[in-house]
Inverse folding.
């Protein structure tokens, strides 16, 4: 399998190279150059397999330059019961005969990013060997919260790699900050950047673009890389859980062979739902993909109108991991629905960069609307949904998942579609506990309580333990104390690497 750039200006490369490069050098994203099909017979055979075995069958189609042993080794190091609190890795929770929750948050950081970031480091270190790369890989991450911690947990102590995470000192929650500052590992560094997320992000982008600086690093034996969600190595493991969820329903006879189901995905950067799109293209029986947005509803407008317009106010919401105005992974979908016409993609992306807006052609829009449906949930609807789901099912969901549930309700009202549906649950309710406790117990329950105290309140209310990754955060030693202005970030990188 070779990978081609959506912008058409780079040669096709094997998976290892696509994963090592992250973004294509022409500015595009790598996509598989051929279709992979899992037919109904193969699907049937996968029913009795466990998560890792199912994952192997999917991954080997896309990573055919990795040996069976290499893929198995990656899978064993990532998806085990040391890293995940559920042996099923991504278990399904049944709400009704036709509605299920796919829990993607049993990994070490309690958010769905672990599903990909637990395995990406192993793909990457093997890619380094396979491509004859001699340098130590240095992962640079700018984070607004979830990604940084998930990347740190994924890369900690992975031989041949170092990771440096920059977070805005004003802009992450108390829990997220403590999760990062207490990070253990012999190859990790966490640095506070004075300012907001944009300052940190811009600083990291500048470092990647600075040729002289990169050369200096190379001479010292280092090569920069990214664990960003545009890396193919982050997307491909996400395809697996859509298959696995379907197979779990089939294994329990909840669906007939070949029966189509819907997926609802709380969406930000369009990575998670794009993996569901690939699963559908591969032959997984999927009727509709329901793209759930929060008040930053750029994607909902786009799916309705074919016009992408980021010229609007950025709103800080209670589902912060979906607060995004530019969904990078959408470029891959555009490339496919435009029948791999890279000139169209270049045209739209240039418009986006120059005017903040682009409009796709009628044919591409129709193709998107055949598959995707979208709506959004505002803050009140989100809180209300958490409370309603708790009252009706005795099940507690986080704010992002609540956006998905609300949009699913809107979908069934608008379409009367009774197709069995799985809602992707992207974070543990403990991770966004303030909004969750407020929704369930009321405003007074969160007054004068910090997030760490609220963990205990939620534990009592739900009758479940605080997840290990969030427990005792206030008793762990602070290991990372560096603070810098955004202009000093490159110097900090050199200090950390002792150059
Ligand atoms: C990252 C994230 C999302 C958005 O996923 P995308 O792949 O960026 O669309 C949703 N919910 C949570 C909790 C996340 O961390």
């Amino acid at each position: 399998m070779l990978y081609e750039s959506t912008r058409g200006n780079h040669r096709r490369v094997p998976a290892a190279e696509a994963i090592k490069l992250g973004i294509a050098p022409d500015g595009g994203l790598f996509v598989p150059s051929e279709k992979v099909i899992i037919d109904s017979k193969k699907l049937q055979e996968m029913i009795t397999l466990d998560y890792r075995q199912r994952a192997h069958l999917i991954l080997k189609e896309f990573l055919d330059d990795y040996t069976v042993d290499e893929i198995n080794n990656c899978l064993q190091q990532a998806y085990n019961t040391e890293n995940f609190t559920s042996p099923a890795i991504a278990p399904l929770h049944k709400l009704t005969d036709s509605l299920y929750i796919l829990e993607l948050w049993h990994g070490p950081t309690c958010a769905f990013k672990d599903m990909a970031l637990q395995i990406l480091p192993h793909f990457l270190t093997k890619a380094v060997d396979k491509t004859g790369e001699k340098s130590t890989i240095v992962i640079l991450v700018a984070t607004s919260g979830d990604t940084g911690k998930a990347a740190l947990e994924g890369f900690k102590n992975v031989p041949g790699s170092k990771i440096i995470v920059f977070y805005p000192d004003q802009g992450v929650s108390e829990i997220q900050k403590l999760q990062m500052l207490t990070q253990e590992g012999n190859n990790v560094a966490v640095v506070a950047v004075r300012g907001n997320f944009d300052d940190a992000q811009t600083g990291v982008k500048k470092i990647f673009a600075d040729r002289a600086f990169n050369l200096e690093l190379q001479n010292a034996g280092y090569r920069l890389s990214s664990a960003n969600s545009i890396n193919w190595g982050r997307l491909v493991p996400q395809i697996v859980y859509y298959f696995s969820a379907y197979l779990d329903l089939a294994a329990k006879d909840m669906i007939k062979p070949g029966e189509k189901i819907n997926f609802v995905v709380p969406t930000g950067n369009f990575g998670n739902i794009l993996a569901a799109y690939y699963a559908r293209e591969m032959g997984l029986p999927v009727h509709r993909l329901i793209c759930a947005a929060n008040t930053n509803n750029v994607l909902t407008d786009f799916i309705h109108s074919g016009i992408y317009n980021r010229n609007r106010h950025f709103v800080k919401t209670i589902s912060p991991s979906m607060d995004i105005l530019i969904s990078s992974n959408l470029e891959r979908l555009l490339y496919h629905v435009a029948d791999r016409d890279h000139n169209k993609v270049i045209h739209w992306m240039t418009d986006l960069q120059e005017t903040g807006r682009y409009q796709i052609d009628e044919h591409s829009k129709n193709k998107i609307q055949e598959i995707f449906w979208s709506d959004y949930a505002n803050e009140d609807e989100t809180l209300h949904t958490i409370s309603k789901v708790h009252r009706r099912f005795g099940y507690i969901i986080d704010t992002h998942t609540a956006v998905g549930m609300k949009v699913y309700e809107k979908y069934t009202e608008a379409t009367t579609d009774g197709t069995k549906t799985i809602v992707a649950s992207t974070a543990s309710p403990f991770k966004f506990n303030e909004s969750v406790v407020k929704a369930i117990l009321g405003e007074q329950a969160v007054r004068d309580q910090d997030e760490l105290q609220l963990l205990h309140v939620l534990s009592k209310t739900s009758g479940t333990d605080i997840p290990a990754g969030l427990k005792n955060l206030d008793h762990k030693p602070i290991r990372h104390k560096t603070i810098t202005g955004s202009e000093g970030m490159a110097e900090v990188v050199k200090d950390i690497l002792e150059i």
Remarks:
- Residues 92-112+233-431 form a domain with the Rossmann fold fold (CATH 3.40.50.1100).
- The chain has a mean pLDDT of 95.
